[in-house]
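Cross-posting from the modeling subforum.

Setting up a comparison between two proteins and wanted a second pair of eyes on the formatting. Protein 1 (sequence, then structure tokens):
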Amino acid sequence: MTESILIVDDDKICNFITLNAFKKAGLKNVFVAVNGDDALKKLKEAEKFPDLILLDINMPVMNGFEFLENYQKEGFEGQSKIVMYTSSIRESEKKYSLQFKDVCDFVNKPISREQIKAFIQ
């Protein structure tokens, strides 16, 4: 069962909606990072890695793919499941992201109630 989630997205409105949806579903440990660099810093400072990372692709400073590459370089593999969470539907992006060991799914925004329930369970 998922106890903690890190949402990595630069869209403030989307973060607000997603954060509140998880909290309404009963999950208390939901955190937000505004880009890949911010997420890596939070992971380095964390006492415990989140069970799940929802990762957007298109972000300033460090995009989702750059995050995945740095996550791997830092030796963080195996710490969290990663779900690509994006408005992009390009098959090439999906294929590329699924090459990373911890990426387990690719979902389009906005997230549905059914997906939230599935992520928590």
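Protein 2 (same layout):
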Amino acid sequence: MVARPIDPFAEYACELFAGLGPVSARRMFGGYGLYVDGLMFGILVSETLYLKVDTETRATFEREDCVPFEYDKQGKAVSLSYYTLPADAMESPALALPWGRLAFAAALRGRSAKVSKASVKPSKSVAQRKPTKQPLAKAPKSPSRATARRVKK
């Protein structure tokens, strides 16, 4: 089921990136998250649109004077991997779509990195392992000589 935003700005953002596929906006932390195929590639906070960046795309956003998303946490500025969209791209789906593709690609790479980290868990050494609570299996009894003689006859 596609979540339909009530906020006009969230609806506009979904239309802006419709070329990526079915875009949905879901409420989160007083704003919205923008999703395609269940993957968040953007956020809307205080009437500002931010797109996902990573090490491969950050410089592209910075060259266009895009601003990182920051918030205050206990008196310190915390920056997330989301940057504003260039101002001219906010006015046109044709100009916004390439930026949306960059953001979606960064989100895909981020998901792949999380999956590969989760699948490669270090094995515990013998000393770290908990002892098993199952009783050890008993070795089968060897037949006595008397039983072995009866079987031969």
